[in-house]
Amino acid sequence: MRCAYERTIFVNEEDRFCIIECSTKDPNVPKEAKKKGTKDRIFFVAAGHNLSLNHSIEMELHGKWEKDRYGMKLKVENCIEIVPQTREGIIGYLSSGLIKGIGRATAEEIVDQFGAKTLEIIEFTPEKLLQIRGITSRKLREISKTYQESRELRDIVSFLAQFDLSVSKALKIHKEFGAQSLDVLQRNPYQFCGISGFGFLTVDAIARKNGCKPDHKQRIEEGLLYLLDNAQGNGGHLYLSKEELLAQAYGLLNHGFAQETVSMEKIGSVLTHMSLSGQLVSDNDCVYLPYLYGAERRTAERICELAGETELYPDLNDVLQEAQEKLGIIPAQKQKEAVNMCMENALSIITGGPGTGKTTVLKLILEVYHRLIGKTVMMMAPTSMAANKMSESTGVSGASTIHRALQLRYLEENDGEECQTLEADFIIVDEMSMTDMRLAEKLFLSIKPGTRVLLVGDPDQLPSVGAGNVFRELIDCGKIPVTRLEFVYRQQEGSRITENAERIRKGSCTLQYDDSFRFVPCKTQDQASDLLRSLYLQEVKENGLEEVQIITPVRRNGELSSNSLNRALHDQVNPPTFGKNEARVGARIFRVGDRVQQMENTETVSNGEIGTLTGIEVQDETTVFTIQFSDSREVHYEADDMAKVQFSFAITVHKSQGNEWKTIIIPMMYRFYNMLRRNLIYTAVTRSKSKVILIGERGALMKAIRISDVDKRNTRLSEQIIQMMEQNTGGV
Ligand SMILES: Nc1ncnc2c1ncn2[C@@H]1O[C@H](COP(=O)(O)OP(=O)(O)OP(=O)(O)O)[C@@H](O)[C@H]1O
């Protein structure tokens, strides 16, 4: 059925599942599905993946009519975009954003000149476009390239539609294999397993449809690699035991077959072969992906090189006394010990929850170091907000994110290679619990032996988002001096937040409530969502958008997920008004004033950074978005880059790490099920500077506080450090 897109009802950004309203001239729309209509157009609802959300491109939709509680809709099985033939249609298509470098005015000029032959000319004799004013050779190259890509892309999208695969996946394949994509898809789809986001399961479905043998060696290899990769993402594991890996592989490779098609022996022999050829590393029956094994080993080696005592400073006590007097701080015994430890050891760790005096100790350390040694100090933290806080609270400017300090772009690049050597005599890293194995490797390999290093953090927070449990392992290995600051000084300032955070940390469910720490009971998800949004709007009115944050355990599924809350809040928090620029990117409309969060590391922005959209301008027929981050840095994004950005009125607990706000609002429902964990609620609560509002079921909060230690990760960093140190000292 030939249709036109009319409006979006719903789009899931992750898998591009869309529900849209369409119109058609086709009279075969069932009566029950007809929404409204004019004399010659019938309106109805269609649902499916990757539907066109572009008014300029018509679609041919094929599918089944299905009825649910919202009425009858077309469940789309196949959607083909139809390149338009009319003057308006071609102009609309060319200026739809699919083809870079052509805006509305240029499109009109092209069509005026070439008429119905326009698309043919762009495809076969694009040089003729040089006759058009404003089209330079450089622009022409861009137009030809993106036109070609959009054509190839359409073919890939059609092929992938039968596997329910999204446009974004088609884009990834196309980026990697270009014009060869379709051929590779049909012949050997396992090659796609190397493309990020292209999991074994997806590729396996394509391969099976194309008749690939289920016990083919490459299928088993890719299955094993997939399971190890999956163990990183799902459990934060660096390795799986051989037994566990074989059991998982057997289940995976035989799934969906009536009988055993891949034997355990065959999987075992492929695994052995992969270990011998270096595709995997098997060490003491622990099976690793090679780069993760390397990251763990190399980090352990460098830790051994960095650790050790420094020269003695006989004046240390006197200098500390002078520093205390200058700063007006009377440190407790533990705090003094922390200063001494840091000055007497090349590598040391300070841990403590909020308000335990970590910053106070840091100030003393910086002052003592300045007086005793006075060389270059470098301070860094995983997020820019944490880095800014470090500078502000210590009064020493220049703290940066770890990524910026290391000049890292994408972590995937240069695995195992040393990057940028850090030219400093003393390096302090805050919020160390957020650092995963791969970032830790980059960090430590960048620090030259002889540099003094102090790691600061709170190991009771969530472990890093990426695999590994670096900070906890460094503490637990027992080879690096650690000072634990436990006394909460901020309690004396009458804050319920630090007091309750401390109780949560210890697993106590007896919390104290007042205006700074509230629990608002709600029985249902709908009720909680309504109340949460109205409380959020009220808090924003009082404190400003930048100081209020919703932190939720889940990103998708349900009204209390960050995705749903952002959708529901966007127009309320930042409504469209006359003169406020906005622009559509895919299904989302971005507006000046929106709060957004970066979801991937790039050259200039670290994953997790939060900023405000301050400008949307059209420059040279390209829409440019300007985002200002917390350190006043302005970064420009084009429409494609905005895929790396999410609205951030609500964010997940994982993405909140290393940041803080005045007011935090947290939904807590039983339906969060396996997200109800102590370190999750502890992390969320400790993000607040002055007010915590919990909304939901009290029992869910209690359950979360009671459940600890579910994050056991397979890592051996601590074991490796111990082994290496003992070898170095001849087992003494
Ligand atoms: N020895 C001390 N005597 C009295 N007050 C102290 C002492 N140490 C710290 N404080 C006070 O306790 C409060 C919390 O200290 P600080 O900011 O250093 O903790 P923190 O661990 O860095 O907290 P957060 O992680 O929440 O920023 C501050 O007001 C600080 O002045």
UniProtKB/TrEMBL annotation:
The keyword Transit peptide does not apply. Its EC number is 5.6.2.3. Keywords: ATP-binding, DNA-binding, Helicase, Hydrolase, Isomerase, Nucleotide-binding. This is ATP-dependent RecD2 DNA helicase. ATP binds at G355, T356, G357, K358, T359. One of its GO terms (biological process) is DNA recombination. InterPro entries: AAA+_ATPase, Coronavir_polyprotein_1ab, P-loop_NTPase, RecD2, RecD2-like_HHH, RecD2_N_OB, RecD2_SH13, RuvA_2-like. The lineage of its organism: Bacteria, Bacillati, Bacillota, Clostridia, Eubacteriales. CDD domains: DEXSc_RecD-like (cd17933), SF1_C_RecD (cd18809). The keyword ATP-binding applies. NCBIfam families: recD_rel (TIGR01448). It is an enzyme of class 5 (isomerase). Signal peptide: none annotated.
